Protein backbone atom coordinates (compact mmCIF):
# COMPACT_ATOMS: atom_id res chain seq x y z
CA UNK A 1 0.00 0.00 0.00
CA UNK A 2 1.28 3.48 -0.87
CA UNK A 3 0.19 6.98 0.18
CA UNK A 4 -0.20 9.53 -2.60
CA UNK A 5 -1.40 13.12 -2.82
CA UNK A 6 -2.59 15.89 -5.14
CA UNK A 7 -3.08 19.63 -4.78
CA UNK A 8 -6.71 20.69 -4.55
CA UNK A 9 -6.67 24.46 -3.94
CA UNK A 10 -4.69 27.60 -4.78
CA UNK A 11 -2.78 27.37 -1.49
CA UNK A 12 -1.33 24.00 -2.40
CA UNK A 13 -3.35 21.98 0.12
CA UNK A 14 -3.15 18.25 -0.48
CA UNK A 15 -5.83 15.60 -0.77
CA UNK A 16 -4.33 12.21 0.11
CA UNK A 17 -5.23 8.64 -0.56
CA UNK A 18 -3.84 5.18 0.13
CA UNK A 19 -3.63 2.83 -2.80
CA UNK A 20 -3.45 -0.88 -3.51
CA UNK A 21 -1.78 -1.70 -6.81
CA UNK A 22 -3.71 -3.96 -9.15
CA UNK A 23 -5.12 -4.59 -12.58
CA UNK A 24 -8.20 -3.40 -14.43
CA UNK A 25 -10.26 -0.23 -13.98
CA UNK A 26 -9.61 1.49 -10.68
CA UNK A 27 -12.06 1.09 -7.82
CA UNK A 28 -12.18 4.33 -5.80
CA UNK A 29 -13.59 4.36 -2.26
CA UNK A 30 -15.02 7.58 -0.78
CA UNK A 31 -16.09 7.82 2.86
CA UNK A 32 -18.92 9.66 4.57
CA UNK A 33 -19.06 12.67 6.87
CA UNK A 34 -16.59 12.48 9.73
CA UNK A 35 -15.04 9.27 8.45
CA UNK A 36 -12.03 8.07 6.45
CA UNK A 37 -11.91 5.69 3.52
CA UNK A 38 -9.50 2.95 4.56
CA UNK A 39 -11.11 2.10 7.94
CA UNK A 40 -14.48 1.67 6.24
CA UNK A 41 -13.41 -0.05 3.04
CA UNK A 42 -9.92 -1.60 3.08
CA UNK A 43 -11.27 -4.89 4.46
CA UNK A 44 -13.73 -4.99 1.56
CA UNK A 45 -11.08 -4.41 -1.10
CA UNK A 46 -8.95 -7.18 0.41
CA UNK A 47 -11.65 -9.83 0.08
CA UNK A 48 -10.87 -12.64 -2.36
CA UNK A 49 -13.72 -11.77 -4.72
CA UNK A 50 -12.44 -8.19 -5.07
CA UNK A 51 -8.68 -8.51 -4.60
CA UNK A 52 -6.36 -7.76 -7.51
CA UNK A 53 -8.06 -4.54 -8.60
CA UNK A 54 -6.31 -1.22 -8.32
CA UNK A 55 -7.99 0.37 -5.29
CA UNK A 56 -7.79 3.96 -4.04
CA UNK A 57 -9.02 4.98 -0.59
CA UNK A 58 -9.52 8.74 -0.82
CA UNK A 59 -9.79 10.95 2.27
CA UNK A 60 -11.85 14.07 1.56
CA UNK A 61 -10.40 17.50 2.44
CA UNK A 62 -10.46 18.11 6.16
CA UNK A 63 -10.75 14.38 6.86
CA UNK A 64 -8.32 11.58 7.62
CA UNK A 65 -4.91 12.04 6.02
CA UNK A 66 -5.86 15.03 3.87
CA UNK A 67 -5.06 18.68 4.57
CA UNK A 68 -7.64 20.90 6.25
CA UNK A 69 -7.28 24.49 4.97
CA UNK A 70 -9.28 27.02 6.98
CA UNK A 71 -10.31 29.01 3.90
CA UNK A 72 -11.79 26.06 1.98
CA UNK A 73 -15.56 25.90 1.51
CA UNK A 74 -16.06 22.13 1.96
CA UNK A 75 -19.24 22.14 -0.14
CA UNK A 76 -20.21 19.01 -2.04
CA UNK A 77 -18.87 20.64 -5.19
CA UNK A 78 -15.61 21.53 -3.45
CA UNK A 79 -15.15 17.96 -2.29
CA UNK A 80 -15.98 16.60 -5.74
CA UNK A 81 -13.42 18.86 -7.39
CA UNK A 82 -10.80 17.73 -4.86
CA UNK A 83 -11.53 14.07 -5.63
CA UNK A 84 -11.24 14.90 -9.34
CA UNK A 85 -7.81 16.41 -8.67
CA UNK A 86 -6.77 13.18 -6.95
CA UNK A 87 -7.99 11.02 -9.83
CA UNK A 88 -6.31 13.27 -12.39
CA UNK A 89 -3.02 13.00 -10.49
CA UNK A 90 -3.47 9.21 -10.28
CA UNK A 91 -4.26 9.10 -14.03
CA UNK A 92 -7.54 7.36 -13.33
CA UNK A 93 -10.37 7.31 -15.86
CA UNK A 94 -13.62 5.34 -16.05
CA UNK A 95 -13.40 4.32 -12.40
CA UNK A 96 -15.86 2.46 -10.24
CA UNK A 97 -16.68 4.86 -7.39
CA UNK A 98 -17.77 3.15 -4.16
CA UNK A 99 -19.10 5.89 -1.91
CA UNK A 100 -20.78 5.92 1.49
CA UNK A 101 -23.31 8.40 2.90
CA UNK A 102 -22.06 11.97 2.23
CA UNK A 103 -19.38 10.46 0.02
CA UNK A 104 -22.18 9.21 -2.20
CA UNK A 105 -23.43 12.76 -2.63
CA UNK A 106 -19.90 13.85 -3.53
CA UNK A 107 -19.65 10.98 -6.02
CA UNK A 108 -22.88 12.02 -7.74
CA UNK A 109 -21.55 15.56 -8.16
CA UNK A 110 -18.25 14.15 -9.43
CA UNK A 111 -19.97 11.97 -12.02
CA UNK A 112 -22.03 14.94 -13.18
CA UNK A 113 -19.07 17.33 -13.46
CA UNK A 114 -16.43 14.88 -14.71
CA UNK A 115 -18.10 12.10 -16.66
CA UNK A 116 -14.69 10.96 -17.94
CA UNK A 117 -13.70 9.84 -14.45
CA UNK A 118 -16.67 7.62 -13.62
CA UNK A 119 -17.95 4.43 -15.27
CA UNK A 120 -19.92 2.97 -12.33
CA UNK A 121 -21.36 4.35 -9.11
CA UNK A 122 -22.02 2.17 -6.08
CA UNK A 123 -23.67 4.42 -3.50
CA UNK A 124 -24.15 3.12 0.04
CA UNK A 125 -27.02 4.93 1.77
CA UNK A 126 -26.03 8.14 0.01
CA UNK A 127 -27.76 11.39 0.92
CA UNK A 128 -29.93 12.27 -2.08
CA UNK A 129 -32.00 15.14 -0.72
CA UNK A 130 -31.19 18.41 1.07
CA UNK A 131 -31.87 18.56 4.80
CA UNK A 132 -32.41 14.79 5.01
CA UNK A 133 -34.46 13.36 7.86
CA UNK A 134 -32.56 12.20 10.93
CA UNK A 135 -31.22 8.68 10.47
CA UNK A 136 -28.66 6.39 12.01
CA UNK A 137 -26.10 8.50 10.18
CA UNK A 138 -27.22 11.78 11.76
CA UNK A 139 -24.95 13.67 14.14
CA UNK A 140 -26.65 16.96 15.03
CA UNK A 141 -23.73 18.99 13.66
CA UNK A 142 -25.92 21.33 11.62
CA UNK A 143 -27.75 22.43 14.75
CA UNK A 144 -24.73 24.53 15.70
CA UNK A 145 -23.36 27.78 14.31
CA UNK A 146 -19.81 27.24 13.06
CA UNK A 147 -17.94 29.03 15.87
CA UNK A 148 -20.12 27.41 18.53
CA UNK A 149 -19.48 24.01 17.02
CA UNK A 150 -15.73 24.55 17.08
CA UNK A 151 -15.82 25.85 20.65
CA UNK A 152 -18.07 23.24 22.23
CA UNK A 153 -20.24 21.33 19.78
CA UNK A 154 -17.43 19.22 18.36
CA UNK A 155 -16.64 17.70 21.75
CA UNK A 156 -20.33 17.08 22.44
CA UNK A 157 -20.84 15.38 19.09
CA UNK A 158 -17.81 13.14 19.64
CA UNK A 159 -19.39 11.93 22.89
CA UNK A 160 -22.79 11.46 21.25
CA UNK A 161 -21.85 9.48 18.15
CA UNK A 162 -20.21 6.58 19.96
CA UNK A 163 -16.73 5.08 19.81
CA UNK A 164 -16.77 3.69 16.27
CA UNK A 165 -17.68 6.90 14.46
CA UNK A 166 -15.73 9.03 16.95
CA UNK A 167 -12.57 7.08 16.09
CA UNK A 168 -12.45 8.69 12.65
CA UNK A 169 -14.29 11.90 13.52
CA UNK A 170 -11.43 12.77 15.90
CA UNK A 171 -9.23 13.05 12.79
CA UNK A 172 -11.48 15.67 11.17
CA UNK A 173 -10.87 19.39 11.54
CA UNK A 174 -13.90 20.84 13.39
CA UNK A 175 -14.49 23.68 10.90
CA UNK A 176 -14.14 21.29 8.00
CA UNK A 177 -16.60 18.94 9.64
CA UNK A 178 -19.16 21.68 10.25
CA UNK A 179 -18.86 23.16 6.76
CA UNK A 180 -19.10 19.70 5.20
CA UNK A 181 -22.24 18.93 7.20
CA UNK A 182 -23.78 22.25 6.23
CA UNK A 183 -22.93 21.67 2.58
CA UNK A 184 -24.56 18.26 2.74
CA UNK A 185 -27.68 19.73 4.34
CA UNK A 186 -27.93 22.42 1.65
CA UNK A 187 -27.50 19.87 -1.09
CA UNK A 188 -27.22 20.84 -4.74
CA UNK A 189 -29.36 22.32 -7.51
CA UNK A 190 -30.72 20.26 -9.08
CA UNK A 191 -30.81 17.89 -6.11
CA UNK A 192 -28.43 14.96 -5.80
CA UNK A 193 -31.42 12.68 -6.41
CA UNK A 194 -32.37 14.41 -9.67
CA UNK A 195 -28.75 14.43 -10.81
CA UNK A 196 -28.33 10.73 -10.02
CA UNK A 197 -31.48 9.83 -11.92
CA UNK A 198 -30.25 11.75 -14.98
CA UNK A 199 -26.80 10.15 -15.13
CA UNK A 200 -26.08 7.61 -17.84
CA UNK A 201 -23.39 5.58 -16.04
CA UNK A 202 -24.14 2.30 -14.30
CA UNK A 203 -25.64 3.14 -10.90
CA UNK A 204 -26.27 0.97 -7.85
CA UNK A 205 -27.86 2.21 -4.62
CA UNK A 206 -27.16 0.00 -1.60
CA UNK A 207 -29.42 0.16 1.45
CA UNK A 208 -29.11 -1.67 4.75
CA UNK A 209 -32.31 -3.54 5.53
CA UNK A 210 -32.27 -2.22 9.11
CA UNK A 211 -32.51 1.32 7.72
CA UNK A 212 -35.89 0.65 6.11
CA UNK A 213 -37.01 1.21 2.55
CA UNK A 214 -35.14 3.57 0.24
CA UNK A 215 -37.12 6.82 -0.03
CA UNK A 216 -38.25 7.17 -3.63
CA UNK A 217 -36.79 3.79 -4.48
CA UNK A 218 -39.34 3.04 -7.20
CA UNK A 219 -38.48 6.27 -9.00
CA UNK A 220 -34.78 5.51 -8.73
CA UNK A 221 -35.29 2.11 -10.29
CA UNK A 222 -37.48 3.57 -13.02
CA UNK A 223 -34.57 5.84 -13.96
CA UNK A 224 -32.20 2.88 -14.23
CA UNK A 225 -30.68 2.89 -10.74
CA UNK A 226 -30.37 -0.64 -9.35
CA UNK A 227 -31.52 -0.66 -5.73
CA UNK A 228 -30.08 -3.43 -3.56
CA UNK A 229 -31.14 -4.06 0.04
CA UNK A 230 -28.53 -5.85 2.15
CA UNK A 231 -29.87 -7.97 5.02
CA UNK A 232 -28.59 -7.69 8.59
CA UNK A 233 -27.10 -4.26 7.93
CA UNK A 234 -27.77 -0.67 8.90
CA UNK A 235 -26.21 2.56 7.69
CA UNK A 236 -22.67 1.14 7.66
CA UNK A 237 -23.45 -1.72 5.31
CA UNK A 238 -19.80 -2.49 4.55
CA UNK A 239 -19.08 -3.00 8.25
CA UNK A 240 -22.32 -4.76 9.18
CA UNK A 241 -22.39 -7.35 6.39
CA UNK A 242 -19.08 -7.42 4.48
CA UNK A 243 -19.77 -10.60 2.43
CA UNK A 244 -23.06 -9.25 1.08
CA UNK A 245 -21.56 -5.84 0.37
CA UNK A 246 -18.60 -7.38 -1.46
CA UNK A 247 -21.03 -9.48 -3.50
CA UNK A 248 -22.73 -6.30 -4.70
CA UNK A 249 -19.40 -4.81 -5.78
CA UNK A 250 -18.44 -8.02 -7.52
CA UNK A 251 -21.75 -8.07 -9.40
CA UNK A 252 -22.93 -11.25 -7.69
CA UNK A 253 -25.91 -9.73 -5.91
UniProtKB/TrEMBL annotation:
Top-rank lineage group of the source organism: Bacteria
Domain spans labelled AB hydrolase-1: 28-133
SUPFAM superfamilies attached to this UniProt entry: alpha/beta-Hydrolases (SSF53474)
Pfam families (alphabetical): Abhydrolase_1
GO molecular function: catalytic activity
PANTHER family found in the cross-reference section: HYDROLASE ALPHA/BETA FOLD FAMILY, PIMELOYL-[ACYL-CARRIER PROTEIN] METHYL ESTER ESTERASE
Protein name as it appears in the record: Pimeloyl-ACP methyl ester carboxylesterase
Native source species: Streptomyces spectabilis
